[in-house]
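Second attempt. The first submission of RNA polymerase sigma factor SigL had a stray character pasted in from the spreadsheet, which I only caught after the job came back as garbage. Lesson logged: always re-copy from the clean sequence file. Corrected sequence (175 aa) follows.
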Amino acid sequence: MGDQGKVAQAHQDEELLALLYGQFQRMLFSQVLCLTNYDRQWTEDVVQETLIRAWQNSANLVREPGMLRGWLCTVARRIVIDGWRSRQARPQEVELLRPDIAESPDDTEQTLSVMVITDVVRQLSDEHRSAIYETYVMGRTVKEAAIVLGVPEGTVKSRLYKAMHTIRRALQDRS
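This time the job returned cleanly.
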């Protein structure tokens, strides 16, 4: 095709686009809107796709308005039908209203650690267990725990060190 042929084809394409948008866009939008159950976004997509297909097939289209209208409506209806079929083929999308429901943290590791620690603490002597209880469970300082237990602060520190060393070793052995 020569330069004049390309210019003539471009001019015909411009005329077709002007005709399509000028005469058929509103009509097509209102008809497709009914087919899409009044989903405006989907309707706009279908109308745009229909007009793009008309432009792509411009060489084969009969430019008479009655023929163009029928062709556009048929193409739009087929695009909507394809859309309905593809929506039925995949699972329906559901909007997640509460994101905290979607995620449930995996507490398995923490639960196992608690079980191991509980088991190890049961195996500790009463003195070591008391030191752990007063400081970690009751939240007392070493000085306060020493007063409650009736032992020197150094003894509480020593018992805590040995108890924590035993617990850490047990956790490492079970990991």
